[in-house]
Amino acid sequence: KTAQRIIVDLKDKITKPDDAGPSGMVSPVFDNRRNEAVQALAMLGFNKTASEKVIDKILMHQTEIISVEELIKQALKNL
Questions:
Q1: pLDDT tens digits, residue range 49-68?
Q2: What is the 3-state secondary structure of the chain?
Q3: Contact 79/49 with Cβ under 8 angstroms?
Q4: pLDDT beyond 90 at 15
């Protein structure tokens, strides 16, 4: 029972391979900025799937780290 509880609790914290950052590896910073931006766009009424695609595209083409605010601004321009 304890193992099942741990699996259920950690299931949301495990990232999928398609959540990988620009280097192909999942970065906690990349994942956190991505999730915050997707949530912000969802609160503004944008489709979650479309937001994720746009944000992933922006993050893949960034050569330097940008803030969540800048990420949201760029995503709004592309949505």
A1: 999 999 989 988 887 888 88
A2: CHHHHHHHHHHHHCCCHHHCCCCCCCCHHHHHHHHHHHHHHHHCCCCHHHHHHHHHHHHHCCCCCCCHHHHHHHHHHHC
A3: no
A4: no
